[in-house]
Amino acid sequence: MTTITDNALITDSQIQKSTNGCTIKTNGHAPATKIQKPTEAEAEAAVRTLIAWAGDDPEREGLIDTPKRVAKAYKEFFKGYEEDAIDILSRTFEDVGGYDDMIMLRGIDMSSHCEHHMVPFIGKVHIAYMPSEKVVGISKLARIVETFSKRLQTQETMTAQIAAAIDEGLQARGTAVMIEAEHQCMSMRGVQKQNVATITTRFTGVFDSNKDLKERFLGLIKNG
Fold first, then answer.
1. Residues 6 or more apart from 22 whose CB is under 8 A from it?
2. Is the pLDDT reported for residue 30 higher than 70?
3. Per-residue confidence at 131, pLDDT binned at 50, 70, 90?
4. Which of 115, 168, 182, 184 is catalytic?
């Protein structure tokens, strides 16, 4: 079973300054109020509360260090809030020997967290762009996937954000992005249906206007 959407949502994340001077980046939706980032001790206390709410004793031996571990893991899970995709794409190269065809990365591993239930969705990202006057090192494309995936996300929003960042950062003639992922908020809870692929796409510029180019991108994914 496959769910397919072509979503043209917001661009890069908006930035909100908190009252303690910490920069909070959101998924393109500005917070209704300024956000003050809790301390690590407050985060650990919140984890203890959740453990107790789940029905266990946060003070028992197996759980005593869990709040500290969870807080540390969250720093890694959501490190994308501290990164800027446009900065990552800022170092470019113009000497490409006249190359003006598609540049594509296929099958970039991706793991993110659904903003609705804060459980993972895991899959692959496929990216292509048509360069104008400059190109970027291919590792930087994988890095912007990491930047956007390491935030609370929806797959639709992340698809649009990746495409918009490439368009803005590289002034590309067109960008194509496809994400295919399995959402554990659907496989572990609720309807509990496993092995369902959610597929989202975003096409800009020549990928949107040129049917043959779009089909070539999709064909390279299918036949890879």
1. 36, 37
2. no
3. very high
4. 115
In CATH, 2-12+92-222 is 3.30.1130.10 = yes
Per-domain boundaries in the chain = 2-12+92-222, 15-79
CATH 3.40.50.300 is held by the domain 15-79: no
Overall pTM surpassing 0.85 (yes/no): no
Amino acid at 98: G
Of 59-63, 97-101, 160-164, the poorest mean pLDDT is in: 97-101
3-state SS, 53-93, equals HHCCCCCCCCCCCHHHHHHHHHHHHCHHHHCCHHHHCCCEE
- Count other C-beta atoms under 10 Å from residue 31's C-beta: 11
Given the residues 114, 146, 153, 156, the one annotated as active site: 114
Is residue 22 annotated as part of the catalytic site, yes or no?
no
Assess whether 113 carries a catalytic annotation.
Answer: no
14 is catalytic: no
